[in-house]
Records
---
Amino acid sequence: MTAEQIAENINKIRATLPENVELCAVSKFHPAEDVEAALKAGQVLFGENRVQEAVEKFGLINRDSKRARLHIIGSLQSNKVRKAVLVADCIQSVDRTELVELIEKECNRINKTIQIFFELHTGEDSKSGFSSEEEILALCSRFSAGEFPHVIPAGLMTMAPFTDDESRIRKSFSTLRLLREKINSLYPELPVKELSMGMSGDYKIAVEEGSTIVRIGTAIFGERQYN
Ligand SMILES: *Cc1c(COP(=O)(O)O)cnc(C)c1O
């Protein structure tokens, strides 16, 4: 993709999104110059799957001057948490209790506050995410008790199954929305508000189901080359 095409893709997608839905440009496997092209087009929120790649790529960019923000959206190994909290503004892919404890510990160490989303497993064929809502609710109770002062539970994330069956995709997104409603009624003091759902192939359905952040890679930057 040229810089012009990237800008055009971003503008086209933005034009289809309601005002309250934020576009997260997923730049994994694409070079820093593509991120620069997106920044020039006014894009500020980026998603990366792998911590090391994010550090290398976003280290090249003067993020502060451009108000760029970076979210980690891929499953995070425990030994990468230290680096992840340094580079990221939010970790969307929190999929186990231990990870919250580690994020709190590392943020406490460097005196930083970070946002997280709880990732819920809603599609039968995807593997990532908490498999039970109960675990997320138990964590909410601990947040409510003040156990994680450096971590802000700001939302929920999910990936829909890869399928042509629109009803299954829709079900996955509505499951996430219902969980947010449950959390908001049980723990109104927690700021759990964002619904990160929808990718290049299914974001229109996600928006209909109440998404507040869509994570789009291919439709902005083109196909990824995985080697
Ligand atoms: C790669 C990725 C995306 C973007 O997917 P596209 O289909 O390229 O838009 C979104 N979310 C997650 C978690 C991803 O890993």
---
Amino acid sequence: MSFFEISDRLKEFDKKAINLSKPYFEGIEEIAEYNQQKVLSAFIENRVSEAHLGISTGYGYGDIGRDTLDKIVARAFGAEDALIRHSFASGTHTLTVALFGILRPGDSVLSVTGRPYDTITGVFGIDKKTDGSLADFGVRYNQTELNGESLPDIDAIKKELKNKYYKMVYIQRSRGYSLRPSLSVKDIKTVCDAVKEVSPESIIMVDNCYGEFVEKTEPTEIGADLMAGSLIKNPGGGIAPCGGYIAGKKKYIEMCANRMTCSTVGREVGATLGHNRELYMGFFNAPHIVGEALKTAVYTSALFELLGYECTPRYNEKRADIIEALILESDKALIAFCKGLQSGSPIDSFVVPEPWDMPGYTDKVIMAAGAFTLGASIELSADGPLRDPYAVWMQGGLNFHSAKVGILLAANTMMNEEII
Ligand SMILES: *Cc1c(COP(=O)(O)O)cnc(C)c1O
């Protein structure tokens, strides 16, 4: 039985890649099972019933679905409190609400993971004081660079914090579009411990995008005061159609709620318009879906290593997020990979992705994303800028069986074009 044209040569590589991956799949299953129990127990503890999945309109006063899901998220992330809303427009918007919720004119923030993710640089106003950026409101930004091992430079951080008071220390867990490794929760704990030692008043905030449920603990369980992420990534479980969450200390969550709506009503308003069910289902499924995405990433790196490419992380390396970067070495390879992957997607499989000039990027970018939710990167997706070393960042996969087809078709397209 064969539904897809995969060359015999590639089938051999596939077999070997599966064998290499299997031992790592066991570790992924173990974490997914632990996190699934964590989430299920939070549902049971909060006595979720059909009434929680209902609809509110207008002001949305007393929406028990909304208020209870906040508690479930807090519980699952080991945080005092949380806000999870479909009305956060994106991950960047969610992080922005958290940053503006906490920071006031004259405050300073220190990023300890170097330059943040592209869209966040504009929120801080790092390069220019754009209208509405934190810089525009008089919030000062500074950063310490990663050290030679691509980890936060603890000595430099301590020195900077002794030198000056920073209201906030900002950590980005995931690599974003860089080739540095993502930070493990243990790495984040090392930073939190160092910050608390020299500047106990500083609020530690983590951009947790792509990190949720990859490990058994979350940053808020080991010293982070606040973290935020997107629901079209890990914690939406591929079901939430949009949104974001913020989790952390109760007093900071209240401050964020006042920024999210307004200071008189905070979290008491916000109609859920029928999105409760999707957010509950998505968060419930998230640990399993993250496991599927991790399996896809491990398999992809095993396969492409066997095919002779440099992959980061390697299939046998510890993972702190769901992203896999493949160094494809040529524009032809990058384009073929994305075309092949797109052809194995459940939605828009017939579409041929082309490199294009995207606002805010210096080089052309190519993307493959045949997803049920537009832009969802918990679903199998890949993109990369057309510049040396022609790296592609791939992530997601709602289920390994289907995602594997996408990856095989990507490799098969490269073989057909005689790249490998
Ligand atoms: C995805 C992501 C964000 C938020 O991006 P949106 O596209 O606005 O959802 C922020 N930081 C990192 C590291 C990310 O990966």
